[in-house]
Amino acid sequence: MSNLIQLRQGEWPRFLLAFAYFFFLLAGYFMLRPIRGTVAANYSGSLHLLYTATFISMLLIVPVFGLLVAKFRRGQFVPGIYLFFISNLVFFAFAFKDAEPGDWVQYGFYVWLSVFNLFVVSIFWSFMADIFHPDQAQRLFGSIMAGGSLGAISGPLLTAQWVGEIGTGGVMTLAIFCLLLATTLAITLGRFERNQSQDQPTRVIGGSIWEGAVHVFKSRYMLLICLLMLSHNLTSTFLYNGLAVLVDQNIIGFAERTRFFSHVDLAVQVLAFLFQFLITSRLVIYLGMSRTAILPPILLAAGFTLLGSSLGLVLFAAVQVAQRALNYGLLGPVKEMLFTVVGRETKYKSKNFIDTVVYRGSDVTASWLFKGMLSAGLSISQIAWVYIPILAIWGVGAWHLGKAYTGLKLQFKPPTVND
């Protein structure tokens, strides 16, 4: 098993805690994701407005996050943020006790889950980049992400199985228990790291609440990561919105749509798990970061060519499954490795700014672009051809980003205890 996962002596406890932590975090989230997919299908004509509301919410929350990072230690702000989101979910669990709640409750849940997902996952990977050095990240991040994929497989399976019996409110209650377990494991991992450093508390990061955002625009490396994020999100949002339109046209009923999206999520996570556990780390080690980073846009270009030539619900869902599997299974671990060669303030503040504001900003751009092209009379097949040049830009940017990472890795020095 150690050879399969590429673990070395002394790495088991930290790895297992991180693996279980991510398992329960994504199990909780992916129980909820099919419900958000159903809301998206119910309001497919208003998705650009929901994306905009999510982006505005991100702009309001990021300064608060920056303040928490600047004023509190990691062991305080990480569980505190998780508990805040869990308390919000308790409200939605009561609100969704009805078979199909009111419009504004569904709007609120869509925006809330979109904010929740990015913040809690971003915090998880900031934590991982803080405790694993670059060589460990290359070997272990794929396998740690596989723990998340197992949770993401379990989540939609449970939702598809039980949503008809316990309702969406009951599914949310199950998600609350998973997220509480994830929070407990985050606290345990933090205490383990503290014991490893002779019981000394982790240093408060300090600095300005806006410092992370300012650094993004001053760093060529951070801007290349933003380009990677923007290119990916332009293509993924088209697939998300396009599938919502096709589901709205072909599938009737809240529970039936939720079940369909559960099956899509399940297929995505099974493929992603195979990448994460068996392939990704080996690709990075043997091909190098640059060659690995350009694989997703090359493979997706073939998928978009198919969509431009032919269209149907099953084919469109298959391409979206491939895109998301590549995102979770290959692009995701690669992106998180990129932050292991930068300082702690960048890992938490700049990374969170990119993972939230830049991510959702590109979502807003993509959703309005999609809405505009539909309004102009373009079909979904015709719109697919528009994204081929974007995939080419993504590939070029990914190549240069991989080269930049390799240069920084050669200069990297592991931080001293509690640095």
Descriptive overview:
This protein has 419 residues and is mostly helical. It has one domain: MFS general substrate transporter like domains (Growth Hormone, Chain: A). The chain has 15 helices and no strands. It has helices spanning 2-5, 12-42, 47-71, 74-95, 103-131, 134-196, 211-218, 220-250, 254-287, 289-293, 295-309, 313-337, 344-375, 380-386, 388-411. The longest helix is centred in the middle third of the chain and has 63 residues, at 134-196. The model has no long low-confidence stretch (mean pLDDT 84).
Keywords:
0% strand; 419 residues; mainly alpha; single chain; Growth Hormone, Chain: A
Average pLDDT, rounded to a whole number, is 84
User: Tell me, what's the shape?
Assistant: globular
- Please name the fourth-level CATH homologous superfamily: MFS general substrate transporter like domains
Low-confidence stretches: none
Strand/helix succession: HHHHHHHHHHHHHHH
The CATH class designation is: Mainly Alpha
Question: What fraction of residues sit in β-strands?
Answer: under 5%
Rounded Rg:
20 Å
Count of individual beta strands: 0
Per the CATH scheme, the topology name is Growth Hormone, Chain: A
User: What is the helix tally?
Assistant: 15
Q: Major β-sheet, in short?
A: none
Question: What number of structural domains do the residues give?
Answer: 1
- Which range best describes the helical content: under 10%, 10-25%, 25-40%, 40-55%, 55-70% or over 70%? over 70%
End-to-end gap: 32 Å
SSE class: mainly alpha
Please tell me the CATH architecture by its name: Up-down Bundle
